[in-house]
Write a structure and sequence with these properties.
The structure is a single chain. Helix 3 crosses helix 7, helix 5 packs antiparallel against helix 9 and helix 10 runs antiparallel to helix 12. This protein has one domain. By secondary structure, it is mainly alpha-helical. The longest helix is centred in the first third of the chain and has 53 residues. A two-stranded antiparallel sheet has the order 1-2. The chain starts with a helix and ends with a helix. The chain is built from 12 helices and 2 strands.
Length: 300
């Protein structure tokens, strides 16, 4: 996955190591004096009783988030590049290329139909309908940008819950302490629990990776369904207008494969589709070859 791999996945090892290196010193700091970034023992106890999350007069506190901060902080610029710049740009490019493919198809049909003596009125109607299909692709690309934005935000929130889940036993052990010396024992349990679960940061990144892969599949499936719907409707419209037999046979399947190839190419660039899905489309055929075959179709 080139785009996601280059901007996010390839950085996981580095940010995981940063989180591992920072984890134990962070847990130790929680037990320091307030002047040194630590918590009062009452606040500390309230935190462990609430799985690391507590709000008091000094504001909200989240121990799990603090442990994940090196990951989130170091990924921030790469995350933004992938999801607010690169992906919207490529989807907009897909819209432009889809529009050009639709126009090319329509022009080919018009030229062949006029050669066969088709009426101009019907062709004008198809030209007007073409703009409707172009708008559908443009609106759908915008919807996909919004979908990606929502899904990536959900994925970005997956780092912390994985850490929280792993430290639940540690929190319970700390919360069970009572009596003299309890604060010292709580701090010992906490530091030991963090130290024994340093692999949680790799698990956290892997969870996010799986969510992003699932996001890619959702977007890919949605775009494929939309392209199929558009060409089903186009097939109906052209069949009705051009005397029934004009778009029967191979004309629409070939043009549909051309746009499907463009969908696959976009997702290959984004790596929002796996290689098996991409190879099943008609990417290996050039646009010129498909147009040549379109001219050879019988429009009579």
């Amino acid at each position: 996955m080139d785009t996601l791999t280059d901007n996010i996945f390839d950085n996981f090892d580095r940010v995981v190591q940063a989180a591992v290196s920072n984890a134990i010193p962070t847990a130790q700091r929680w037990g320091n004096h307030k002047e040194e970034g630590g918590f009062h023992w009452c606040t500390y106890r309230a935190l462990v009783r609430r799985n690391g999350v507590f709000t008091n007069g000094n504001g909200p506190h989240d121990l799990n988030l603090q442990l994940c901060t090196p990951i989130i902080k170091h990924l921030a610029s790469h995350w933004e590049k992938a999801f607010t710049k690169r992906l919207p740009h490529v989807l907009q490019s897909f819209t432009r290329k889809s529009k050009n493919l639709l126009k090319s198809f329509h022009q080919d049909i018009v030229a062949r139909s006029l050669e066969q003596g088709a009426g101009a009125t019907g062709l004008v109607m198809l030209g007007q309908q073409l703009r409707t299909y172009e708008a559908i692709f443009a609106n759908f690309a915008t919807q996909m940008v919004e979908l990606i934005s929502n899904l990536q935000q959900e994925a970005n929130r997956e780092f912390v819950p994985v850490v929280t889940e792993r430290l639940l036993q540690t929190y319970e052990t700390c919360a069970a302490e009572s009596g003299g010396g309890m604060y010292v024992r709580m701090k010992g349990h906490m530091e030991g629990g963090v130290a024994s679960n340093l692999d949680v940061f790799a698990d956290s990144c892997n969870q996010v990776k799986q969510r992003l892969i699932a996001m890619c599949k959702d977007v890919n499936d949605a775009m494929s369904v939309k392209a199929e719907d558009v060409f089903t409707n186009m097939s109906r419209d052209y069949t009705q207008v051009i005397s029934g037999s004009a778009v029967q046979g191979q004309m629409m399947p070939k043009q549909e494969r051309l746009v499907r190839a463009e969908v696959a190419r976009v997702f290959e660039e984004l790596e929002l589709a796996n290689q098996a899905d991409a190879s099943s489309n008609a990417e290996t055929e050039s646009e010129e070859t498909l147009k040549s075959r379109s001219h050879s179709c019988n429009l009579q």
